[in-house]
Design goal:
The chain has 2 domains: 99 residues, Nonspecific Lipid-transfer Protein, Chain A (2-Layer Sandwich); 297 residues, Vaccinia Virus protein VP39 (Rossmann fold). It has 18 helices and 11 strands. Strands 7-6-5-8-9-11-10 form a 7-stranded mixed beta sheet, with helices on both faces. Strands 2-1-3-4 form a 4-stranded mixed beta sheet. The chain is elongated and about 70 Å long.
């Protein structure tokens, strides 16, 4: 065995103890790691060239991902979701164990690259958004719920819900926290394909402005609002939130779902200052974001390079610290723990069911990258350190009812229960 094979073998011996992983190296050497255990899959992979072990050791996630994307790692038993689940489940965040860190040189290079990207100036923000969201609406149509096209964590109060039902429950859960009434003016920052804005206009009678930096999303959001018959109440604009704030407009409510992850740490205070300046004195805001359950960290190299350049998953501590600087009062905080794992597994299933169509839209390498991304995302909510936070804000402590009972009452009314 080569030196890199021996080091990788020692790492896998520590990493996989429950469940079974069989690795066949390019020279034909075969090794088994772990042992069969209830609830843990049995996976077999083949490394097709001799450089794969050293590439993986440089950065476990990026090295493996790129080798898998290039076909240099083949999964002979199981599929990528099961493989990533096996590794994650053996290294649960709650147990305090961690996977191998990238090499020192890779950490320095990645750190510098990430720092430069994380400033997310308006022009760069548009490029970063286009990298992920302007790859074509056809892919997202195959993956997301057709009813609301929600590319964010659904809400699963019942286990027997469809994806569409869970996404509608999420929209109602958020709308309920906003305590909306007909005629109120709402700003939706990072509006996606318009699902939230359309839902609010239809169910609450609010007037909604949705903003995005994605040209693909903007065009489809306007089209969907026309089809829903609410184009007069749900409008959309291709504009950066910072530029909108400079116009001096104010809103009774602000909602932002799945956008804060793209802001970047250096812009956290800028984001909250813009929101505070646009929020009416008696207004309320709801921020829905992926979050870290522990202390602040750093975006891994695979996600930063291939999925969300310039993105960052915030810890609750640094999110609230930034909002405190502009005197936004955190009036309610909810942690959604496993909801996103269920959502992403449904997206993954739909992608696997539509493999041929996605490969035809893009290519095999893209399909491997995309499904690896989804597998990593789902399992980090199941056994890694990620969750979702919903943080409700107000400028005035009297802006919202004193107890949380109104949230459940509003939710039932919105869903017709």
């Amino acid at each position: 065995m080569t030196v890199s094979q021996r080091i990788l073998s020692k790492m896998l011996t520590r990493t996989v103890t429950q469940g079974k992983l069989t690795v066949t190296y390019a020279d034909g050497t075969r090794q088994d790691f772990g042992s069969p255990a209830p609830g843990f899959p049995e996976i077999a992979i083949r490394l097709t060239d001799s450089r794969v072990p050293s590439d993986i050791l440089k950065d476990l996630r990026l090295g493996f991902a790129e080798a898998y994307m290039d076909g240099r790692v083949e999964i002979e038993q199981g599929e990528v979701m099961q493989l990533v689940s096996l590794v994650r489940a053996n290294n649960r965040w709650e147990d305090g164990r961690s996977l191998a860190s990238p090499s020192a040189g890779r950490r320095v290079r990645d750190g510098v690259r990430y720092l430069l990207r994380s400033f997310n100036k308006p022009g760069q923000s548009k490029k970063n958004v286009a990298h992920h969201y302007d790859i074509g609406n056809d892919l997202y149509r195959l993956m997301l719920d057709a009813e609301h096209m929600q590319y964010s964590c659904a809400y699963w109060p019942r286990e027997d819900m469809t994806l569409a039902e869970a996404q509608e429950a999420k929209l109602a859960h958020i709308a309920a926290k906003l305590n909306l009434k007909p005629g109120l003016r709402v700003l939706d920052i990072g509006c996606g394909w318009g699902g939230m804005a359309i839902f609010l206009a239809q169910r609450t009678g609010a007037e909604v402005l949705g903003i995005t930096l994605s040209e693909e999303q903007h065009a489809l959001a306007r089209e969907r609002a026309e089809q829903a018959g609410v184009a007069d109440k749900a409008r959309f604009e291709l504009v950066d939130y910072r530029d909108l704030a400079r116009r001096g407009e104010t809103f009774d409510r602000i909602v932002s779902v799945g956008m804060f992850e793209h802001v970047g740490v250096p812009q956290f205070e800028t984001f909250f200052r813009a929101c505070a300046n646009m929020l009416a004195p008696d207004g309320a805001m709801l921020l829905h974001t992926i979050g870290r359950m522990g202390s602040p960290g750093r975006t891994d190299a695979f996600t930063d390079k291939w999925i969300f350049p310039g993105g960052y998953i915030p810890a609750l501590s640094e999110t609230v610290a930034a909002s405190e600087k502009v005197r936004l009062i955190a009036t309610d905080v909810e942690t959604l723990r496993l909801h996103y794992a269920r959502t992403i597994r449904e997206w993954y299933r739909r992608c696997m069911d539509n493999r041929e169509k996605i490969v035809a839209l893009h290519d095999e390498r893209f399909f491997r990258m995309w499904t690896f991304y989804l597998a990593g995302a789902a399992t980090t909510f199941e056994d890694g350190g990620m969750c979702n936070y919903q943080i409700q804000y107000a400028l005035d402590r009297r802006a919202l009812p004193l107890t949380r009972g109104y949230i459940e009452a509003n939710e039932h009314a919105l869903l017709g229960h």
